[in-house]
TrEMBL record:
Keywords: TPR repeat. Residues 667-688 have a biased composition (Polar residues). TPR repeats lie at residues 791-824. The keyword NAD does not apply. InterPro entries: Endocytosis_PI4K-reg_protein, TPR-like_helical_dom_sf, TPR_rpt. The keyword Zinc-finger does not apply. Residues 644-688, 704-744 are annotated as: Disordered. Gene3D superfamilies: Tetratricopeptide repeat domain. Belongs to the YPP1 family. Involved in endocytosis. It comes from Entomortierella parvispora. It comes from the Eukaryota. This is Cargo-transport protein YPP1.
Amino acid sequence: MTLTAKAQVIERDFQLARGRANYSTFPEFARRYVKHYKDGVVLANTALLELAIGEAESQARRTHLWLQSVSLDDTPEVIAVSPRVRPEAIQEAVERLERVLTKGPEEHQEYAAIVLARSAMASDAPDRLQRVAHYLQNIQLPPARIVTGYNFTLIVSGLTIKGMALEEEGRIPDAIVCYDNVAVMLQSNPNERSDELFSWTEHALYRGSMLKLRQGDQLAAIRSFRAYHHQAMQWPGSFRLARRATMYRYYAQTLSASSRANLSNGSATATDDQSQFQPAALSHEMAQIHAYWEDSLYAVTPFPGANEKNWRVLVMVEQIVEDRKLLGSGNNADKRALVETIYRASQKTFQSPRILRFLFFALVDMGQYDEAALALKAYLDMVEINMKVKNDGLVEDDLTHEERVRMDLESEYDITTVQIAGSRLYSKELGKADEGLACAKGALDNIHQYLQQSPHVTQLLSDAYKGEGVAYGLQASKVHDPEKRPDLYSKAIDAFEKAIKVTPGNYDTYYLLALQLAEMRDIPKAILTVKQSLSIHASHIPSWHLLALLLSSQKDYERALSICAIASKESEWDLATTDALSASQLDGEDYLALRITQAVLQDQIHGPESALELQEALFSLYTKVFAPEPSSLGESMYDIQSIRRRDQSDVEVSNATIAGRPRAGSILSSRSRNGTGSDLGHQSTINGNTLDIPKANYASSIASSIGSTGSKNRRGAPQPMTPATPLGRSLLSLPPTVRRPTGQSVMRTARANKVLVTLWLMSASAFRRLGRMDDAMKAIEEAERVDASNPDVWYQLGSLHAAQGDQETASIAFSKALALAPYHAACLARVGRSYLEAGSLEMAEGALDTTTRSMGWDCAEAWFYLGKVFEASNQLSKSKECLWYALDLESTRPVRPFTEALPRFLS
């Protein structure tokens, strides 16, 4: 019997209803279909069996209180399945279909057999697998012919059922073949869509991926994961989120493990599809995985109750953090994306030390040092509390990493690494020596008490001792009590020597020890120590720089200059070859500091005229070193437009003029700022801030001279700077918030301003000694324009006016310098000298004694003038001691202060 037009319409609508699993309409469709097409009895009863199976499965899930969330605990070895149905619940529908099976077209019989196989697979009958094999034995799967519509769905379900049966029989390779055939069919029929197709597709791709992992075939599993993800893009947003979360977890872990294995083997790719494992493609793929994993997991993860741990969230964040290490930290948008991801995770966990640890390191990497310090304090407080309340019967040493994650327990190794990083943060970035020392001591206590058998104990000890040494040295440099200073310096030396004993092959420890010895003016020993650093790492610029300064402290200027020339050849920042992108920005800063010292040595040997010849090259190098870093520009490599996520908007960082800002109340007169009269030069943007970069021919660009007294009003208001480039939208960004500059960018801007001031003041000093007072004044004005809060600007201004005989204006400038830096040693020495020349011996002694006992203990001028004060007051023994000490300090004084020219803590 042929189908009538009416029957064709009914069949079409019937098949659409079956594709949507709209069971309530099945009986009516079946009745009408058989009425208009007598041979449709097989298809009608097939649909009624689907109805019975669907209702029985729903009832079984309700009876067993079964939820999809159980799939969150799936592993490649154990995959959760819905509860089986009782055979009697569907027996009547099965028998009814079997009775009419031969009464319809052969095509209907084939598809009916697939549904019968489904009914057998869904039941808990003991012979269920045999019945599945019986029903499918005469059906070609996949078929040779092309099928469409709901029939395509039935073929996919038949392949999936066959694979599940083979899987239960232990025939895993054969089961994988069935699941892979589903993937192939989906690729050949990309336009097929239906709820039931999505369901069976998900079953096949999910199980196939997990079985490949069970077999240990990571690369095949990755291909299946990719097929799953491709199909998931078409599924409803709430469809099987628990299984999707599990799938993305194993997808990320497998892709990461495969990539690491290939990196360790020196291979650039992880599969035969090389393009998929290039860095950019890998970053894009992992970003998608992380985003969908996060969204699906959070959709099925409630906030934890009391004493509950959302360990799955911890696993996810840890994997994301590890993947970011694998891919590299990326640009500022990527770093911010990671921080925001961790903050979101904190909303699904409760007082998790692990989350705080990840947040601390992410904030440090992002450069948000103040927030990192808060996260560090919260972390250390939390682990301390956990140590007090932990279960005494728990032997933590026996716990695996996975068990620690599930219990959210931090290992002593994790705690120690945070303490070491905290010591570095406090000492290097925040200048808080006391907090840095406390972290270093805490790390050492942990190592000695818990980690003696750790394979990482050597490096941990070395890092902790270095942190302790730096903190002690920083304390000594800031202490005002002369009785405490020697003990602090001694402890710093002892800590560095312990670090060297632990890891004698670390060049940076020798450098730190040499710098500490140099600060203490133990020059011969410092020279021997820094040579040890260079013997280990011959291209370390700060070590070469330190050696040059040490030689200059012995007044061996020629040799120090030759050391600078050798060091310049060792650096990638050599002016003849570098493009300012091949080496890091911090390396560039080290190289620029070396070149400044080289110019000072040139001045010392050949005079100020010779030093001025190098200024053009120094300003040019400055523009390279403090140009925008490539990693700070552009959009996040995780920015993927196609991902269905919360709405986000680009975030613009408001332009903030850090340098080149006119200062109210300036002693210096101003030249015009309003356009054509200014020839200062171009600007370079650094992390959202602007820095004024002088042109190479800086001397001729300076405007008219300034007066010798008071300040004149600046002409015109400051012109707005060009807005900073908007940061690109990051994939995992939260909704737009006001972005403030990171501590890292603020510090970089401050360093850039300080260096630029140093360059201008070097020019001013050279001009002054050459008698070119007008040019010296103009150079000081440029330094003041960059940073009027730098006390050295005002000290140079005072020195210039003093050289011109204008003591009144000089006194005003020195007072301004001391208002900005009350312990400015050179300035206090000049003030003491002024009191001495004026006959105010008590005032002179007070100022100079305060200087030599505190921050100016190594200022030769202060000791010299203090000796002169004692001599004038007939305290000859004290005078002799001071003068001898001044002579000793002068004989060991470098051309630039050690700790000002060199980094105290290496990166």
